[in-house]
User: Fold AAA family ATPase from Streptomyces polygonati.
Amino acid sequence: MLTRLEVDGFKNLLGLSVNLGAFTCIAGANGTGKSNVFDAIQFLSLLADQSMTDAAQQVRGVHGERLGDPRDLFWNGYASGSHTMRFAAEMIVPAQVEDDFGRPAEPTTTFLRYELELGFEPPRGPERIGRLALRHESLRHIKQGDAHEHLRFPHSVKDFRGRVVRGRRSGQAFISTAESPSGEAVISIHQDGGGRGQSKPAAASRAPATVVSTVTSSDDPTILAARREMQTWRRLALEPSALRAPDSYNAPGELRPDGLHLPATLFRVANETFDTDIADQVYARVAGRLDDLSGVSVRSVGVLQDDVRQLFTVRLQEADGMTLSARSLSGGTLRFLALCVLLEDHRVGGLLCMEEPENGIHPANLSAMVELLRDLSVDPGAEPGRDNPFRQVLVNTHSPGVVQLVPEDDLLFADSALIRTSDGAVARSLRLRPLAGTWRTDSASTDYVTVADILPYLTAPAGAHLTLPGEVA
Assistant:
């Protein structure tokens, strides 16, 4: 669970700090940079799994493309001078993970703060583009006694915090960065035993990847747990063409971020206990949830098994008896169905990011969509477990309808503001502000919005031809 994100120098994120709860909705006009928050999270997730070069090439470019030049990720892009971006992520990691060899590992402590600084090295010799350079990386624990100061969202101390924040740590960090006599940054891995054993130092300038991404065994269980947590931060971009596709019998039963393998995932979720009664209950719950949509009358949902072609296909039966395949369903219905399946899949944890979930959804169904998204996230008032998966949901929207349905505590409002950087330059940066009086508002800060500031989300636009009785247009 990502509880706090700090970003400076990545795209238009300058000095950004945001506290996250189980469910967070970022609302703002197009072009403010809301998606850059998702890009930053995705970038950190990719850096925990791949080389810096590969991670940079997979992040969305400033114009929507995936570009090969890493300068596209810096706020000052192709301007002269130095390029630096810094990240910090506070996270609750799993209490037990598996390494790349299938061996179990238990971290020393589960509440961690990860910091990363990247620079840019210009091309040399025959190189056509430059590369990212690792300048600083650290991973340290957050004391149990300080957890209440970091977990600001409402939660049960006994059933939630007492279950997910575990372990103790004394001594130095798990990953640290120091400067060598020659002035070069040296990154060291320290064993979970604190003072026991030798640290493992390496020169940062020659590193092709982050230290976290290189830990694959149970020898460093806490770093491994941080890596596993970051690998679960996924960005959902559900595509109707992928959701409509049938699956072969040997397809992986795990829904991809684009929605591929929906039939195989639904079949696996329903049948993993080999109990037909439980399978029927899963299908019935999915059908019941889908029936909440206005204009959709669902009697049953299931997976058709074609033994001749060895294919799984999602099948929906309407109340009048008509049977429809996934190919006959609208994009909005398919996206809603995919989220219903994720809700049933207790294996799915980590952070789910979703942009503009209202796309393809009729305004009458926004309430059902918002309720489903909130149900996907863990209930911090109860103990996480199979019936309360440790999931976190982050969405962004520009829809007034969505904003009106999301509880005040779960909202952050996005706009842009001119700021002066450390080198004296003026830049336009994304700003995220909570609603006054919510847990996200720092008592010492005035950086929040009031109801008067968000009237465009609460009233009909000027010039509206149709309004409800009593509403001013």
